[in-house]
Write a structure and sequence with these properties.
Helix content: 25-40%
Number of strands: 10
Order of helices and strands: HEEEEEHEHEHEHHEHEHH
Strand order of the largest sheet: 1-2-6-3-7-8-9-10
Radius of gyration: 18 Å
Largest sheet: 8 strands, mixed
Oligomer: single chain
């Protein structure tokens, strides 16, 4: 590998190790949703920020998290400085409105080092290996509120948030005994992501992944194959709908197929067709809420 190729890989390692914060650009009241600003501790004490969107008279709760480098609102990809993932906005709030109008309360929160939540682990990202503590913090917070503690609860876990949820299920299955179901939107492993990036930059994938492994270890202590939910997926015990852009240029279908195959619970796999842009997948349920509502309606 020449120096320019190494710089590309080092840039990818920096992104995986640090991500970057993006603003919580929109709020639920823009879509006529009443909401409460909330904050609560992660399992290890990192302060997390979120929204609680109540649905009057409902005993059902969906807990939502997000992808990297987004936040509970989505991603301001239409604004200068954040146009590197397609140049368009990801907005989760129509998704929340669809859930609310169907009778679900919503708890949406920013993972550590994202949105308005506090810094954890020196600002390092673990692709779930640190952030699983935030997932558990959200469950404990919902159990601590008098108005939500007895609600039927399901999860909408997205990319980094999905990896984090699967790690949490593996490490602390007792925390999920009350969870009814999950939608797992675009879980991802680092290796195919880096292999695809190497192919696009005319870098030998084997050399590129080996160098990324070294760079990742130097930044976070984690090897490339630790940055994956594949083994953790074996701990998923709730009915799970896995959703993925089929021709996503940033990863490989085989990775999602492997994650899906490892889930031992009742499950379905939904391929999003007609796009190659990963971030279109994050907008999918804001634009097409039916499958989401059908899934939760089946198990809650």
């Amino acid at each position: 590998m020449d120096s320019e190729q190494k710089q590309i890989i080092e840039g990818l390692a920096d992104f995986f190790a640090n991500s970057y914060r993006t603003p919580v650009l929109r709020r639920p009241d823009e879509f006529d949703l009443e909401y409460e600003d909330v904050f609560f501790p992660s399992m290890d004490g990192v302060a997390l920020e979120g929204w609680f969107i109540p649905a009057k008279g409902s005993n059902k709760l969906i807990i939502c998290n997000h992808f990297m480098p987004g936040n509970r609102y989505g991603y301001p990809g239409h604004l200068e400085g954040w146009q590197n993932f397609g140049g368009f906005e990801v907005n989760f709030i129509p998704q929340y409105k669809a859930l609310h109008d169907a009778g679900y309360n919503i708890l949406a929160y920013d993972l550590r080092n994202h949105g308005n939540s506090n810094t954890g682990n020196g600002g390092k990202v673990g692709i779930g290996l640190f952030e699983y503590r935030d997932v558990i913090g959200s469950l404990r917070y919902a159990k601590s509120r008098p108005d939500t503690k007895d609600m039927e609860t399901s999860l909408l876990s997205i990319c980094l948030g999905c990896n984090s949820t699967m790690v949490a299920m593996n490490k602390h299955p007792e925390e999920f005994s009350h969870i009814k179901s999950m939608i797992a939107l675009q879980p991802v492993s680092a290796r195919p992501f880096i292999e695809k990036a190497c192919e696009g930059a005319n870098i030998d994938p084997q050399q590129g992944t080996e160098y990324f492994d070294l760079c990742s270890q130097r930044r976070t202590g984690f090897h490339i194959d630790e940055l994956s939910p594949i083994e953790h997926a074996k701990a998923v015990k709730v009915p799970t709908l896995v959703v993925q852009v089929h021709q996503d240029v940033l990863t490989k279908p085989s990775d999602v197929e492997t994650i899906y195959a490892n889930i031992p619970a009742e499950k379905e796999l939904l391929w999003i067709e007609g796009t190659t842009r990963r971030f279109d997948g994050y907008n999918y349920f804001s634009e097409n809420p039916k499958q989401m509502l059908d899934w939760y309606g089946k198990y809650m």
